[in-house]
Input
Amino acid sequence: MSEEQEYTVFDEEPKEDNLTFLYNVLFKPKGLFEKLNEDARLGLAFLVFLGVTILTALTGILFPVETELQELMQVATYSTTSLGLIAIGTSVFGMFWWFTMAAVMGLTAELLGGKGSIRALLAGFGFAQLPQLFMIPGTIIAYFFLPSVDVLFSLVIGLWVLYLYYRAIKDIYKLSTGKAIGTLVIPWIALLLVIIIVAIVFFVVFAESLMFLEDFYYMVP
Output
């Protein structure tokens, strides 16, 4: 009779199914985004980002909250083609913004000493759009019943999305709280400085051009 040998089997943690993962993004995000360094789920992130972008854009058009837009929409009619073009345009712009944000924030995180994957951050930013889905019922409620609800929904969901951005940066690049916040803030400060510099240069050049034209006017007999 052969001796039975005992083996200790270490099972890997089972991978979360997509629905569980998306639920955890919304309600249990702490430490979740770090897993994207191993499996970015980029395809799912793309579908989430695209779906949320298109649905929220079309909802905002079909159920405009502002009074002026309501009056306009009562007259305007949207064909399937026009809604399709709006969806395509929104998607293209949204994806450009998505890729740009991930690239800039990823570079900033690396400059601050973070170690992570830009692919994972891109996916994380895609999943961070999930709370925007709650703007759909919020917009409909504001359109039919209470317009002021739209402001409340926008504020709460905006902070929710911002927190998920912070969580993705912190977990994926393994940064401290301060550096993760800095990664979010520094690019916007840099952009603001660039805008200010460009505005100053523009006004200086414009003022000098006016002075030149004025001198030229008086030089002409």
Observations:
- The chain is about 70% helix and 0% strand.
- Residues 18-219 form one domain.
- Helices lie at 18-27, 42-62, 67-75, 80-111, 118-127, 135-144, 149-173, 177-219.
- Residues 1-11 have pLDDT under 50 and may be disordered.
